[in-house]
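Anyone? Bumping this.
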Amino acid sequence: MELNDIIKPENKVYAEPKLLNRVHMHYCPGCSHGVVHKLVAQVIEEMGVAEKTVGVSPVGCAVFAYNYIDVDWEEAPHGRATALATAVKRLWPENLVFTYQGDGDFSAIGTCESIHACNRGENIVIIFINNAIYGMTGGQMAPTTLLGQKTATCPYGRRPDLNGYPLAITPLLAQLDGTCYVTRQSVHTPANVRKAKAALKKAFENSINCKGTSVVEIVSACNTGWKLTPEKANKWMEENMFAKYPLGDLKDLKDGIQR
Amino acid sequence: MNDKVTLMKGNEALAMAMIRYGAVCTSTSSPGFSLMQEGVSYLAASEVPALLINVQRGGPGLGTIHASQADYFQACKGGGHGDYHMIVLAPSSVQEMADMVALGFDLAFKYRCVSMILADGTIGQLMEKVVLPEQRPRRTDDEIRQQCPWAVNGRKGMRPSNVVTSLELDDDKMEENNWRFQACYREIEKNETRCELIDTEDCDYLITAFGTTARVAMKTMELARAEGIKVGMFRPITLWPFPEKQLREAAKNVKGILCVELNAGQMVEDVKLAVECKMPVEHYGRFGGNVPTPDELLNVLKEKLINK
Amino acid sequence: MAKIHGAVVVNTERCKGCRLCVVACPCNVLNLKEKEVNDRGYHFAYMEQPEACIGCQSCALVCPDACIEVYRVTEN
């Protein structure tokens, strides 16, 4: 069969999501952000909720998410995305409201608002990209940096006596009464991408149906910050990150939180 | 849209982040307002209307819980980073406090800027008769979409997406944004300066004061006039934009100005600039929650200006 | 038995040559152009062995820049 016979509109099985703007994304080659953006755009499109979706972008690499996913966006001050999302959702309860935050934003400067939003059971979705490093500012140590992991500010590896321990914030949030769905996913293989997409869909449905706070952590690679090729970064992530940040659902209340 | 939402927040920075969403109001006292400065700057840069209320207490630091006017600079000259201004309203009665809520919201929405009520610990704890303005209904969803087309509430009808952001890495665009902010501030300066002039037509001396000190100075005026000293009063109601034209006009024929504040000399700088130092401008301030008495002010007036 | 034919179209201008699609492909269809680059200087992905493609979408799923579209035909 000739290529021309295969490449026809009726045979298309995977298309670019319509809600993803046709612009160059500023992310480094191989960055997990791109995959998650794509999934978010796909899920919103498939659910048909673009008209009532509001995203809140963080400070960090993903601040320009609003240039890529064609829905309404608010850019939040550093760490305050969940507070902003709270306001949006409280004022427009029928909307799908999600934040998109990195580990520096969500689990460092924003720890307070992150925990309080989850504890209040705000009906929002938190998409938490955890790559164990400050990517945008040049690969410095983050609260999530693994023990022994080398970064610009711990060039000999993170030491617990000097730098404390890596913060796994998601299990903390799963303990709170306000969270209805807490899961940890990754997007480094086709199978994981499919699972992450299903998780995002469930979380988005929770927001629309006001079931409580949904947290979708995506364990991600920052190949530039880790100073590896995209391929090796994914491998390093599998070998090192998953031990501290194991994948899977931490909590899933089918009927939502108790009010 | 939910009819009314009142939220108790974890901290001030958090509250500001919520207010970033627009159309809301928060109140605090000085240290809390310091914490909010990041958000104020973001609000200004995102052109999101909001009303902030700072009932000033004595600083610096945790200071005291009693009245102060030491946040004048913070309110009028910045506080947060970047070139921005807020409309600063200074009430000197409970009635004014009540009226300024509606005024503050109206101005914020008219100019898509931040307005603030800068009261102080005394005004904040005052009990006096007040006629509450009639409650206005909240905008409906459709009204919001119509009147605030910039609002981030979902792309209803698949309109082009709205993005509220303060970030712009293109230098030319960011400069353009700044020019737009400045043009808006000039417009506010032109249209929105407010002040109260009392007995300024014939006065030899002028007292400038706002908030609590203006109330005290009113009595001082009375005492002075009983002694035959013609004292007038200039009370700015908007601290930014500062009513400098009105002050210049009122001060045309006076022999001296006494600026009374609960701080070490903040508004006095604007007073001097407004009158271009063409006459003596003296400052008298009290701190730490102390408020001067009318007699005290009369003595200061005599000492610093009349008997000099 | 039904035979599946697949093909991918790479948006070569958006491709950043990260190689993740090459790794993800179970049939070794894809590779990066060795000498050619796009406007931004990236060695973009292309079908090196188009006849091996089964249209499984693995490459498209992991592509961070959403620059791969997949086509599939089932031939009886």
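Late reply, but here is one note on the structure posted above: Chain B has a mean pLDDT of 92.
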